[in-house]
Amino acid sequence: MTERTVLLVAPRPCMQHLNPLLRAWRGAGLRVEQQAYDSALPDIAADVKARQDLAAVLLVGSSRRAPATVLPSPFVTDHAGKRVPTAWLPATDARSLRRFATAAARVHRRGGRQPGVALLSQWHPRYLHIVDRMETLLRDGHKVFRWTSDVILREGLVEAMGSGVGLGVYVGHGRPIGWVGYHGMRSRHFQGFAGEPMGAVLSLCCRTASRRRTGLSYAEALPLQGVAAASFGATSDTLHTDNTRWAVAVCDVLKEGVSTVGELITRAAPSSPNAVSPYRLIGDPLAPLASPAAALRRAHAVQVYP
Amino acid sequence: MKINETTETVRITDDVINQLRSLLTQIQPRLPQTWPSGSLFQSELGLDSLDLVELVARVEQRYGMLIADSELPRFVSLDAMADYICARTQA
Question: Model confidence at A141, in pLDDT bands (50, 70, 90)?
């Protein structure tokens, strides 16, 4: 079996802060290739297209750069035609980078094989209906936690997300500053987050990775605050029909079996380029989606209001 | 020759209708075992827009085609959808 290679591209001074994640990747049997740069952001998409040996890429760069412009999509097709998950991480400050790397490393190390999915949504019939359908699709074989905004308050959800479940999927309206559901979920609600990080949080909605009128987008803030090892959000408006395609395909891929967020995104991506191009992957592209037993116990104990 | 072609076209359309019926039953298990392929999705079978979008997503997966959202209103029945798929796959 060939060794899988993950490429980390980061400004030279940032590399040291990401060491916990590098060690975790190596511990997971990955070969890590580091590419430090000093000035201009390298054209990673072009590099990936010319190669055929990469399992994933993480591009770290100045937080002045927006997710919409640093990468073309959540994955790049390589020379052999394989989709390579390609993630972005804004280098805001050393403390945030270390917090991200520590949380992502923790997700790698904690193990667990049980798939667990938290379904999140705005309190609106259209989105609750999608959650109903996802719950039905995932019922066999997955631990599904329904934390939609009709059954849990914002403060409860922050605590629930700290249970450390492998995957969370939000459907509803989105803004660059956060989710419209839960009376407005913002990154500031996770300040001082001390819970167990989730594997990944997917926001199947508009603009949570957009920088419009915000310093840092919500989708970028989640990994930097240690809430999740990876997040997935759109840089522009999205169509409800496209997000439904994503939701259905995510359930299908989860049922077939999947271990990392990068694998989930590359396999679940709808065939329409318009459905894929608004989205970006933020944080660890190889964040594991398995939930440890302790996380599932904590998630079961979350109080919801029927 | 023309009769053979017509028979083949009918057979392909029937196959597609059967596949669509199977997909739709997976999406909405409360549907009866069988129903006329001309039955209207919304008014006669009680399907909603989410069911239809999921059906379109599964058709895209199965037949490897892209279906624009603007095409959705024309998918009012199995017949209409099968005609569309056959026309696209034979084009």
Answer: confident
